[in-house]
Amino acid sequence: MEIAVISGTPLGQSDSIVATAYVPNSLEFNAPNPPLHHTMASIAPSRLAALVKTRCAVFQTSYNPTSVRTGAKYLRARLRGPSMMNYYPPTLSLSSVIRQFPEMELVDAVEQQRLQDIEDRKKRGKGAPKKAKSKADSRRTSRKR
């Protein structure tokens, strides 16, 4: 059964659009589907394996006939490290700005205070010991056991 739809164009133009659609009747809706096992021919397993092997060669994938877990999905995945590193912007510190622009002669007050504290401790004899230049100068070798 076919239905024809005619619609006029706006503004009184003489052209008309004709569209037809097929509408099945109620008997065609209830018709059973043909069984699938009769319509498809069975394929030999050896031919199917050869097809899979060829497909792997063409599309450059690994041939895995026994379905062993290889981890290929994770090895193919995009690396996460660069995205994680770029998530936060680089942190700015006063010391890095001072190193980049030495001609500006900026002063880091916190660093100056730290250096002054170290100097004061050394004057009182509370500073860090000097580093040994050789094995004989080290405190560990001179200490008796």
UniProtKB/TrEMBL annotation:
Subcellular location: Mitochondrion
Identification of the protein by name: Small ribosomal subunit protein mS33
Family: Belongs to the mitochondrion-specific ribosomal protein mS33 family.
Pfam (any one): MRP-S33
UniProt-annotated stretches for the region Disordered: 117-145
Gene source species: Thelephora terrestris
Keywords per UniProt: Mitochondrion, Ribonucleoprotein, Ribosomal protein
Main location: mitochondrion
Origin superkingdom: Eukaryota
